[in-house]
Every structure is written in structure tokens, then in C-alpha cells.
Amino acid sequence: MSFSDMPVDVGPVYEGERIRGNQMYVELGGPKIKKHFELVRVKSAKEIKDGDVRLIGPDLTDMEEGERYPIGILVEVAGPELEEDLEAVFERRVHEFCNFVNGIMHLNQRYTNWMRISKSAFAKGLNNFEMLGTILIRLYKAELSIIKQAQVTFYTDAKEIEKPYEMAMQIYEKRDERARTIHDEDVDMFYGCVLCQSFAPTHACCITPDRTSLCGSINWFDARAAAKVDPKGPLFEVPPGECLNEEAGEFTGVNQMIKKRSLGEIERIYLYSGMEFPHTSCGCFEAIDFYIPEVNGHGIVDRNFDGVAINGLPFSAMANQTGGGKQMPGFNGVSIQYIVSPKYQSYDGLQMGLDGGIYTIVWMPKAVKDRVGEFLPEDLVNKIATEEEVQDLNKLKDWLKENNHPVVETWAELEAMEEEEEEEWEEAGAMVPMGTVGMTIPGIGGAGGFKVILKNCKIHAESIIIKKIEPKRRKK
Ligand code: SF4
Ligand code: ZN
Which ligand 1 atom is nearest residue 214's CA? Predict the structure, then answer.
């Protein structure tokens, strides 16, 4: 496969390329554009005109520099071994293949896809979608040899994109609906994905029926189909092995997989916890589950939320804390689909004496609640605040009390425990146990907050005092 006829280079070496606002010729999709998508469909050979690239809407040369436009990418593929279950995994490769192009930056997936074309690539001659489509077709056929024919259609017109966008949304929903029908205990094989290691070298997804990949685009069925046709590819089988802790979702096979794939960096994963040995997060999670110490609860913020979350931080700031392939207790990248699973962070909920992980959730953006609300426990859904009810951490506590949120019951116990500990520390001359390996103190929200990570460190001190100042509860 050659790209010598193209005005820009194409190859994996360009994957990490970032195109900043002042370097971009145009932006396609992204959070400021309402309707955009990328979709792969498996078709019969006779429905495909191999190599064909179509454009519905303005081409790059018709676009105004510095502006934003919708983007729909529909890739249709055919091949005798192809099946519908492979569509989602093929679709995830749009991200990788677009990023191979020097001068194109691609982020996210499905209906959150976000691209930038650089000014320099445009100046070099990458000025039409025909070229991008041709590159995609060549890469699809070269990298996935079971694809024999491919055609690509781009939509860049705000009106024309509406119909295919609705179709794409229906297809995503159909995939998600199917994923909701099975659970981890129903299967004897999990799957792994390392597609994001070019950005986060210690990250590998473990994909189970209850834990759709954090990018939201690969569910258990999709991963199974991909591992079947290309067992040596980026998606592979993960035999769960022995279950070491049912509540936490700790499996010997998953631990072995992450140890091997993170090159020894990470040794244990609790699939159902954001607080202890959480699943690693790369950078393309659909949402973040974050701990809110002030109310001993969790919030969820999704990528599309452009305001400030209840802890005073925007998604982007929390994404920096969460991503990069680290194991970050208190900040966990998740898919929207995982939120509706009965296993959702269930360990964290059970540890708090609640009925499940979803009961730890005190706040989420309205748009997320609209999407997941019908699948949440009926007795809980009205007790979760959104930005419409509460925007500020100070008011959240009262709101949760008024609405009788289950976390409120944990406060009394927590306060009693804190007071007891406080007394113990005082009696013991303020000796505080320290120095666990990789210990993380999740961000103290509110006015921005901070985080302390102590990793493989040794601390020698006569004494350390860490005090939370809460005058009301102080006895002295
Ligand atoms: Fe694969 Fe996970 Fe990256 Fe999705 S987020 S592409 S499942 S590694
Ligand atoms: Zn990723």
C-alpha cells in the first residue's frame, strides 16, 4: 500500500499529533457542532462500489478557514467473512486511521467524533475529502484483510447530515440495547483491547458484558466478533480465570492480562470499582465517575457537558486527572452503557453500605440523565441532581438531604468514624499511618481542589498531621 500520490504522509508515526486552534484550517464535528457521527456498516459486495468516495455538502476548499462544520463519516465494507457484529470494531478504527494522516487530528468516536485539519496540510494540498476517503479505504483494506471492498460517504452539510445522523443513532442504540441483555456471570470469556496504547501505553480495556469499553464503542459482542476473526489483533480473548472477589469483580485472568499489557505497571483491577484498583483510563472515555468527598458520593460528567461540574471542575480538567493509562482512584473513565449495568461500580456502593454502585451517584448532567434515566432504579432517579437543580457544592448537601438520597445515611456513620479517629490521633500524639504504595487522595472538589499522589515513595518524618478544618464539628 502506498500513499506516494498523496500530498501528506500517512503512517502510525503521526498518531499523537495535536492540532491547536491557531494551527487548524477547519474543525469538523466536536462539542460545538450538534449533529455529527461516524459509522461503519457491513454490506453485500454488490451494494459497494469499491474505492468510491462521495461527499454530500461543502468540500474543504469551500470551507472558511477557522470555522467549524458538521462531519458524518459512513464507511461501508464488504467481504465474505464479514458479519454485522464487526461493525463497531471497524468503526473504532476510523479514529486510528484518520490520525495516521499527517495534518489530521481525530478524537473520540460515534456521535462525539471531533476532527481538525491543519493549515499546513491544507496548504500542502490535502484540500478535499476524496483524498481522505481514499486513504481510509486503502487503510481499511490493508490493515483488515477480511475487508475486500469499501466505499466512504462524507456528510458536511448541516441539513443533509440529519437523516444519516438519526440512522447512526438508531444503530448505536440497537447495539447498546443488545449489550444490556447479558451480564458477566452469563459468559465464560472476557475480551481485551489495546487500540489506545499509542496514546496511553499502560492502558488496556477489559471488555465484559457489564463493562462496555470506556470509549463506549466496543461492547462484549463486538469484542468477541473481532477476537474471533483476528485473534492476534488489538482485540483478544481474556479468560477470566478464578474470581478472587465477586463484589469487586477481581479475576485472576484480568489481573494477568493487565500486568502483561501494561508491561508490569498495573497488577490488579477491580472491574466494579472507581475507588480501589480501578480500571485504567486512556483518554477517550465517554464519561468520568468522580468522587465527591464533601458528600461522600460520586458524580458523573460526560464529554459533551460544556459547563462546570458540581465539584467546580470542567470535564477537560478532570479528564487530565483521569486519563493517560493510570489507575486513578476517585477518577474513573467509564462508558455511558456501563452506567446502566447493575454492576456499575457496585463495589464502591456496597462498601458504603448501599444497594449498589449507582446509589453512590449524586449528580450528573441533565443530558446524561435523560439518556440513562429509564434504566436506573426508580427509587433513585429523582434523587440524583443535575445542573438544573444544583450547580454548587455548598447547596448539594442540602438538596440531597431534602431529597433523601441514600448517601445521606452514610454521613452519620462517616462523621462518627471521623470523630473517633480524630480522638485516637489526638490521644496517640497525632500519629497518622502513612506511605502505602501508589496511594492517592482524590481531589478535594469545591474551589478547584488538589490531589496528592504518593507513588513508590518513602517518607521519613517524626510525625505528620493532616487535618481537615471543620470548626462546627471540632470539640476543642
Ligand atoms: Fe479499545 Fe478501550 Fe481504546 Fe476503546 S477505549 S479503543 S476499547 S482500548
Ligand atoms: Zn482510548
Answer: 5
